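Go through this chain.

——
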Amino acid sequence: MKHESGNRTDLAGQTRETVHEAYSFACMKCGHGWEQDYEIQHLEYTDGRPLVVYYADGKRVPSPLTKPTCRFCDAHVVRIMRSGRVSKAEAARPHH
C-alpha cells in the first residue's frame, strides 16, 4: 500500500485529511487480479462522528476493505495485498 496525505480546507472552513492508498486484489474464485488507487477523505458528520469517503478514478466507491468484490466474476472471496503484487506477478509470467 502506498500512502500519501495532505490536508485541505473545504468551503465550510472544515479541515479534511486526504490520503492516497493503493492495493492489489486477487479473486480466490476465478483468479482475476487487479490493482487500484484510492483517494480517501477523512471527514466528520455534523455531530462529530467520523466519515471516511473513498474515491477511485474520480468516482465515489465503497471501502474496498469492507466487502471487496471481484471485477470479473462479482465474487466476494478477494484477497487484498499491498500495491504492486499483481503487476510483479504479471511481469514474472512467461510471455507467449
Q: What stands out?
A: Confidence is low (pLDDT under 50) at residues 8-13. Residues 43 and 51 are 5 Å apart (CA to CA).
